[in-house]
Design brief:
Radius of gyration: 21 Å
Strand content: 25-35%
Strand order of the largest sheet: 11-12-13-10-4-14
Number of helices: 8
Helix content: 10-25%
Largest sheet: 6 strands, mixed
Shape: globular
Mean pLDDT: 96
Order of helices and strands: EHEEHEEHEEEHEEHEEEHEHHEEEEEE
C-alpha cells in the first residue's frame, strides 16, 4: 500500500453498496453520511444508529508489569481498573501537553499472573500513542502490541440499541455497566461487547475480527429494521458528541493544552504510586490553574442562524475573549451551537454581550453550561 493510499475497513464494500459519501479521515476512507446527516443524527437520538468505527486504534498491553507500565505511561490510575471495566484517561508529553485521550479496557481474569489491557486511541493519533507506549515500556516486563489490524469495531447507539443487541447475544447486557466490557457472542460472532459510547446515548461497541464484520453488520441491520435503526456516518457522530459536550482530539484537546487547561484535570491521578510521564509539569499546571484559572470550555447557543466554526474568535465588548473549538447546527436544539474556550470572566452561563466573529460580523450567542443535551435515563 502506498503512503498516499487510504486504508479501508472490512466494511468498505458495504458502505459503498449503501451509497455512502466517503471521506478521508486520518488516512482511512470512511463513510461521512449515507443520506441526510440530520436524519442519521435524529435516528440515534430517538431510535438507533449503526456505525463503523474500525479506524480507531487498538493497542494491546500484556505482561506481569502491564499495569505498572500503563500507570507510568498514562496520567490515570490504571492499576485500580478491575477486570471487565474501562477507564477514560489521557497520555501526555513530558511537558504535560495532551498526546491523546484514550479508553483503556482491562480484559481477562484478576487471578491471571499476566494482566491484559486494550488501549483504544483516536485514529489520528494511533501511531503516536503506539510509539509512545513502546518507548515508555523500556524496563517494564510488559509487551506492547499493535492490534489495529486485529479488530473491526461496530457501534450501535441510541435508545433502541439494548433491545436490538439483546435479540442477538448471550452476553449479560443488563449487568454491563457504563464504561465496561465483556466477552460474548453476537449473532454467532465472538466479540468484546463494550458500553462506552460517544454520542450522548446508551449504546454498545462491538470489537470483532475483521472477517466477521460484514455478517455482524448485516445481522444488526436485520435486527434493527423493526425499530428504525439506520446506518450512520462520521458527520452525525460529530454533531452527536458536540451536543453531548464531549471533547474531540484536535479541537478541544491538543498538545498545546494540559488536561487542566481543558478542564479535565480530574483524569490526572497524582495519588497513584510512582512517577508518570508529565507528573512534574502537570503538578505545576494544576497549581497554575488554581491560582490563575485558564480559559474555560463553555457551550454557546446562537441567537441567529449563522454557524460558528473551529477557530472563529469569541468576542465581548470589542475584545477577543476566546476561540471556538467546534461548531455545527444542532438538530436537537434547532439552532447552531459551539464549544469554545473563553476567559473565566465570561464563562458563567447567561453572561451577556458574548458573540462570535463570523467573517467580520459579530453574531450574538448565549453562554450555556455543557452539555447541550443529556439523555433521560
Amino acid at each position: 500500500m502506498s503512503s498516499t493510499e487510504l486504508r479501508r475497513t472490512a466494511l468498505d464494500a458495504t458502505h459503498r453498496a449503501l451509497g455512502a459519501t466517503m471521506t478521508d479521515f486520518a488516512g482511512w476512507d470512511m463513510p461521512l453520511r449515507y443520506g441526510s446527516e440530520r436524519e442519521e443524527h435524529v435516528a440515534v437520538r430517538t431510535r438507533a444508529g449503526l456505525f463503523d468505527l474500525s479506524h480507531m486504534g487498538e493497542i494491546t498491553v500484556t505482561g506481569p508489569q502491564a499495569a505498572e507500565l500503563l500507570n507510568y505511561a498514562l496520567v490515570g490510575n490504571i492499576g485500580s481498573v478491575r477486570p471487565g471495566r474501562a477507564r477514560y484517561t489521557m497520555i501526555c508529553r513530558e511537558d504535560g501537553g495532551i498526546l491523546d485521550d484514550l479508553i483503556v479496557y482491562r480484559l481477562g481474569d484478576a487471578e491471571a499472573a499476566s494482566a491484559h489491557y486494550m488501549v483504544v486511541a483516536n485514529a489520528s493519533n494511533a501511531q503516536v500513542v503506539l510509539d509512545a507506549l513502546t518507548e515508555r515500556a523500556a524496563g517494564f516486563d510488559a509487551e506492547v502490541r499493535d492490534d489495529r489490524d486485529a479488530y473491526a469495531l461496530l457501534a450501535v447507539q441510541g435508545p433502541e440499541s439494548p433491545g436490538i443487541l439483546k435479540s442477538l447475544t448471550d452476553a449479560d447486557l443488563d449487568g454491563l455497566k457504563y464504561y465496561a466490557g465483556l466477552p460474548g457472542t453476537v449473532a454467532g460472532v465472538p466479540a468484546l461487547v463494550a458500553r462506552t459510547g460517544y454520542t450522548g446515548e446508551d449504546g454498545f461497541e462491538l470489537f470483532v475480527k475483521p472477517e466477521h464484520a460484514v455478517e455482524l453488520w448485516e445481522a444488526l441491520t436485520r435486527a434493527g429494521e423493526g425499530v428504525g435503526l439506520v446506518a450512520c456516518g462520521l458527520s452525525c457522530r460529530d454533531t452527536l458528541r458536540l451536543e453531548a459536550g464531549m471533547p474531540l482530539y484536535g479541537n478541544e484537546l491538543t498538545t498545546a493544552l494540559t488536561p487542566f487547561d481543558a478542564g479535565l484535570g480530574r483524569v490526572v491521578k497524582f495519588e497513584k504510586e510512582g512517577d508518570f510521564v508529565g507528573r512534574a509539569a502537570l503538578t505545576g499546571a494544576a497549581s497554575r490553574a488554581e491560582r490563575n484559572p485558564p480559559r474555560v470550555l463553555v457551550g454557546l447557543v446562537a441567537e441567529g442562524r449563522r454557524v460558528p466554526r473551529a477557530g472563529y474568535p469569541v468576542v465581548a465588548g470589542g475584545e477577543v475573549i476566546g476561540e471556538v473549538t467546534s461548531g455545527a447546527p444542532s438538530p436537537t436544539l434547532g439552532k447552531p451551537i459551539a464549544m469554545a474556550y473563553v476567559d473565566p470572566a465570561h464563562a458563567a452561563p447567561g453572561t451577556a454581550g458574548v458573540g462570535v466573529d463570523i467573517r467580520g460580523s459579530h453574531e450574538p450567542y448565549e453562554v450555556v453550561a455543557l452539555p447541550f443535551y443529556k439523555r433521560r435515563k
